[in-house]
Design a protein that fits this description.
Helix content is 49%, strand content 0%. By secondary structure, the chain is mostly helical. It folds into 2 domains: 2-85, no CATH class; 97-144, no CATH class. The protein starts with a helix and ends in a 13-residue tail after the last helix.
């Protein structure tokens, strides 16, 4: 802000914020966390614990959760923002599966053989091993 406005070091931050029409940093943090909270409330798989904390804190009759003091302040600010916006966030109906890079690896058993075993038996053991491999089918990508 000092660089943009060309202000000396003695200029107060509050004056620069009002000159640039910017909210204080704390309000910006609370706005970002409120946005994240709405996103997590809609898609609870993003952070399974956080939406439960927010939903419980939005209910005035629910008992207070054991959080650290800073956590209480943040959750209270987020809940106040959500109440002030007067919005109802619906939970996502379908939970998407794992992304392709998080698919579990296939389970491949190994059957050791030796050169002393006849080739026909080696081939049979190899085919049995191949037939017993559990392969997870890949999802086809959705084309837009």
């Amino acid at each position: 802000m000092r660089f943009i406005l060309g202000c000396p070091l003695s200029t107060r931050i509050v004056n620069m914020l009002s000159e640039l029409d910017l909210p204080p940093l704390v309000e910006r943090i609370y706005a970002n966390v409120t946005y994240l909270s709405v996103k997590c409330l809609h898609s609870s798989y993003l952070a399974p614990h956080f939406p439960a904390v927010i939903r419980t804190s939005l209910d005035p009759d629910a008992p207070r959760l054991p959080l650290r003091p800073g956590g209480h302040n943040l959750i209270n600010a987020v809940c106040n923002n959500l109440r002030g916006l007067d919005i109802t966030v619906l939970e996502e109906a379908a939970v998407p599966g794992l992304p392709p890079w998080r698919d579990p690896l296939p389970i491949v058993p190994f059957t050791p053989t030796s050169k002393d075993v006849p080739p026909l038996l080696q081939k049979q053991l190899a085919l049995e091993t191949i037939a017993g491999v559990y392969v997870i089918p890949r999802r086809t990508p959705h084309l837009c």
